[in-house]
Design a protein that fits this description.
This protein is α/β, with parallel strands linked by helices. It is 34% helix and 20% strand. A hairpin with a 2-residue loop joins strand 11 (233-238) and strand 12 (241-247). The chain starts with a strand and ends in an 8-residue tail after the last strand.
Length: 393
């Protein structure tokens, strides 16, 4: 297949639309079911690169949940704790999850509000347990290097057989030069082939230089995720999964705040107050996610007001006070933070500290590097200067 016709481009008025290979080459994909759109393919191809690199860097199966050409979540296939099974809504599934399924559950679960209607990328052949998880989530499609027969049968049951399933050639290597047209003008650049390995974080500039093996893995996940996130971007990671991604902000402190608030919500969902919520029978998963988001936030009365809570909860919850939330957030520790460009001020580190960050990786090179390092030293953080910017547009 040399080209694939799309229904339309980014928007319905943008026609005609297609993807194709120059010089009569063959596309490295097969569309096994459904019909992918323009943005679907942007998500699929960026996500595939991300999970392929995560697998190379960690040796573990990897998954990503993409929305609007940035990851909402990314993770590797580590086992799920009982709490994670509960907050990711898989505790009711009597399934032995494969490492790949664990990776997608974690990628999808970190920010379920943002992942609603995602496009999924998998580093390994999709198996039955992974397909069962995908089947129950609201999603636009999936890309993987292959599918077992049982997984395909499960996925073909989704959207009345119209769910988008893409198989990509895992051996495909793109040309070293990439191009795109903007306003009728062609842009050309060398591909970002940066390899993020164990030595990437060797330049530690803080007083604390104890960078653990686990922290290196988390920092690698952060930086690889940022490599495929619309810039400016910041990524918080803990235990092998991104827990907060702030994408496409003009100000770095806004990236840090946005990603930090998502990381905080991920941790707050594990609090006794949230785990103890008793939802009415039959509530939809998306409504449950939305209710939790409101309950943890400043607009909690939207779900606790008389006449509202009865539609959501069996028992009216107590208000989750600011003091209780802060006390729980203070228990979150050993979080890793990556930034795609240098931090210009120490305020980013101050905000990161409030979300439990202990390990930081950023390019360095700001005229205020001394202030940023000093702020890290104040909190006993470990910070690495990578010397490499990772903008993506």
């Amino acid at each position: 297949m040399q080209e694939y016709e799309l229904k339309y481009g980014c928007n319905p008025n943008q026609k005609p639309a297609r993807i194709y290979m120059a010089n009569d080459g063959e596309l490295p994909i097969q569309v096994l079911s459904g019909r992918a759109g323009y943005i679907n393919f942007l998500d699929a191809f960026n996500g595939w690169q991300l999970v392929k690199e995560l697998k190379k860097a960690t040796g573990l199966p990897a998954a990503a949940s993409f929305k609007h050409v940035s990851p909402a979540g990314a993770a590797v296939g580590l086992p799920l704790s009982d709490v994670e099974r509960k907050i990711y809504w898989v505790d009711d599934m009597e399934v032995e999850f494969s490492p790949l399924a664990n990776a997608y559950i974690r990628a999808r679960g970190a920010d379920r509000m943002s992942s609603f209607g995602d496009f999924i990328s998998l580093s390994d052949v999709c198996d039955a347990s992974t397909a069962l998880v995908i089947k129950r989530e609201v999603s636009d499609g999936v890309i993987a290097p292959g599918y077992t027969d049982e997984a395909l049968e499960i996925l073909h049951q989704k959207k009345k057989g119209n769910y988008c399933v893409i198989q990509i050639d895992p051996n495909y290597e793109p040309a070293p030069i990439e191009r795109k047209d903007v306003f009728g003008i062609t842009f050309e650049q060398g591909r970002n082939e940066l390899n993020i390995d164990d030595k990437f974080f060797d330049n530690i500039v803080t007083e604390n230089k104890e960078l653990t093996k686990e922290a290196k893995i988390d920092l690698a996940i952060a930086m690889i995720t940022l490599k495929y996130t619309q810039s400016n971007s910041v990524c918080y990671v803990k235990g092998g999964q991104a827990i907060g991604i702030g994408a496409g902000q003009q100000s770095r402190i806004h990236c840090t705040r946005l990603a930090g608030s998502k990381a905080d919500n991920w941790w707050l969902r594990q609090s006794p107050q949230v785990l103890g919520l008793q939802f009415v029978d039959g509530i939809k998963r998306a409504d449950r996610d939305n209710a939790i988001d409101l309950y943890m936030g400043e607009d909690y009365m939207d779900v606790l007001a008389e006449g509202a809570w009865q539609n959501i909860f069996k028992v009216k919850p107590e208000v989750f006070t600011a003091e209780e939330k802060r006390a729980w957030l203070d228990k979150n520790t050993d979080v890793a933070l990556g930034s795609d460009a240098f931090f210009p001020f120490g305020d980013n580190i101050e905000r990161a500290h409030r979300s439990g960050v202990k390990y930081v990786a950023e390019p360095g090179g700001s005229v205020r590097d001394d202030n940023v390092i000093e702020t890290c030293n104040k909190y006993g953080m470990v910070m690495s200067f990578t010397g490499i910017r990772l903008f993506h547009h």
